[in-house]
Design goal:
30% of the residues lie in helices and 36% in strands. By secondary structure, it is an alpha+beta fold. The protein has 2 domains: 3-113, Probable inorganic polyphosphate/atp-NAD kinase, domain 1 (Rossmann fold, 3-Layer(aba) Sandwich), CATH 3.40.50; 122-306, Sandwich (Tumour Suppressor Smad4), CATH 2.60.200.40. The strands form 3 sheets. Strands 5, 6, 7, 8, 9, 10, 13, 14, 15 and 16 form a 10-stranded antiparallel β-sheet that branches. Strands 2-1-3-4 form a 4-stranded parallel β-sheet, sandwiched between helices. Strand 11 (207-208) and strand 12 form a beta hairpin. Helix 2 (45-53) packs across helix 3 (65-75). The radius of gyration is 20 Å and the shape is globular.
C-alpha cells in the first residue's frame, strides 16, 4: 500500500507534516509516501494526476478548500481513497464530515488507519457570456447571488491575516448592490419556472464557516441536492432570514428541542430538493464553488454524482 500527499506549500508546515506521515506510514506498514506540490498555475490537477499514474492507493489533500475541491474532482473517476489534512480558513468539507481540524497527528493517523465513507460529488456545467461551457465539481455548495458577490469582494490579503472575519467587510460591500437575480430554472424533469431571487445555493452539505447551518437537511450521501432560494424584500425579511438561519438552524435544529418546535416556513427563504438543477440567468452573474469564485455565468446545470468519492474517516466515526 502506498499513499500520496498533494499539498499546497503555502498552507502547511512541510517538515512537520512529513515527520508525522513518516511515523504513521511505518506504523501501518505502508511503503514510502509520494509527495506532489501544487502551484498557483496548477492548484492540484496535475499533482493528483501524477499520483494516480504512480498507482497509489490513497491521496491525502493538504491545503484549503480549493485544493480539496480540485483533488476530489480529479479523483472522482478513480477507485482511490481520499483523505483530508484540513489546512485552510474554511475547511468546509472537513467541518461537514465532523473531521478533526488543526490536528495534524489525528488527521494523518486517520488517513492510514481509518475506514472509507462514500459521499456524493456535485457536478456543474457553467455557461459563460461567450457561450463556452466549463465543467467542474464541487463538494459543499455552488451559488449565484449575494454569496458569490461577497466572495468576489473579499480581500485575500485581509483573509490571510484575520481569516473568515474578512468576509464581514465583503458582505457589507455585496449588500450595497441591487442583488436581484432573474432566472428560469428546472428541477429534475419538472416544468421550467421563472423566478426573481437574491441568491440561489445548491448544497451537497449544509454547514458554513463559523458553524453556520445554512441547509439543515442536507446530507453528503443522500444522492440529492438541497437547494436554497433566497428572496428577501426589505429589512423585515432579512431579520426573518437571520432568525431562521442563526436561531432555528444554528441552535434549535442541533438540539433535542427540534422535536417540539419543528421548522418554520418563511416567504423569503425556501428549500427544495432535486438531483438536477438547470438555470438560465437574465444577466451575467458571479458564481462560486466551495467558496472560490468562478467568474460570471449566464446559465448552469448541476447534477449529483452519487457516492463518487471514498473519504477516509476514523474507524470509530
Amino acid at each position: 500500500m502506498r499513499a500520496a500527499v498533494v499539498y499546497n506549500p503555502v498552507k502547511i508546515d512541510l517538515d512537520a507534516v512529513r515527520a508525522v506521515v513518516d511515523r504513521e506510514q511505518q506504523a501501518a506498514g505502508w511503503e514510502d509516501t509520494l509527495w506532489f506540490e501544487t502551484s498557483k498555475e496548477d492548484p492540484g490537477r496535475g499533482a493528483t494526476t501524477e499520483a494516480l499514474e504512480a498507482g497509489v492507493d490513497l491521496v491525502i489533500a493538504a491545503g484549503g478548500d480549493g485544493t480539496v475541491r480540485i483533488v476530489a474532482e480529479t479523483l472522482a473517476d478513480h477507485d482511490v481513497a481520499f483523505a483530508l489534512l484540513p489546512s485552510g480558513t474554511g475547511n468546509l468539507l472537513a467541518r461537514n464530515m465532523n473531521l478533526t481540524l488543526d490536528d495534524v497527528e489525528h488527521s494523518i493517523h486517520t488517513a492510514f488507519t481509518g475506514r472509507d465513507r462514500a459521499i456524493d460529488l456535485g457536478r456543474i456545467e457553467i455557461r459563460g457570456e461567450d457561450g463556452t461551457v466549463a465543467k467542474h465539481a464541487f463538494l459543499v455548495m455552488a451559488g449565484v447571488g449575494i454569496d458569490a458577490k461577497m466572495l468576489a469582494a473579499t480581500d485575500e490579503d485581509l483573509k490571510a491575516k484575520i481569516g473568515w472575519l474578512a468576509y464581514v467587510k465583503a458582505i457589507i460591500v455585496a449588500l450595497r448592490d441591487e442583488n436581484t437575480l432573474k432566472l428560469r430554472y428546472q428541477l429534475d424533469d419538472g416544468p421550467t419556472k421563472r423566478m426573481q431571487a437574491n441568491t440561489v445555493i445548491v448544497g451537497n452539505c449544509g454547514t458554513l464557516t463559523g458553524n453556520i447551518l445554512l441547509l439543515p437537511d442536507a446530507a453528503l450521501d443522500d444522492g440529492v441536492f438541497d437547494i436554497m432560494l433566497l428572496r428577501p424584500e426589505g429589512i423585515r425579511h432579512w431579520l426573518q432570514i437571520i432568525g431562521k438561519v442563526v436561531i432555528e438552524n444554528g441552535l434549535v435544529q442541533r438540539t433535542p428541542l427540534k422535536r417540539f418546535f419543528g421548522t418554520r416556513e418563511i416567504a423569503a427563504l425556501n428549500y427544495v430538493k432535486a438531483k438536477r438543477l438547470t438555470a438560465r440567468l437574465a444577466e451575467p452573474q458571479e458564481i462560486e464553488l466551495d467558496g472560490d469564485g468562478f467568474g460570471t455565468a449566464v446559465g448552469f446545470r448541476t447534477t449529483v454524482d452519487a457516492g463518487a468519492l471514498r473519504i477516509r474517516v476514523p474507524q470509530d466515526a
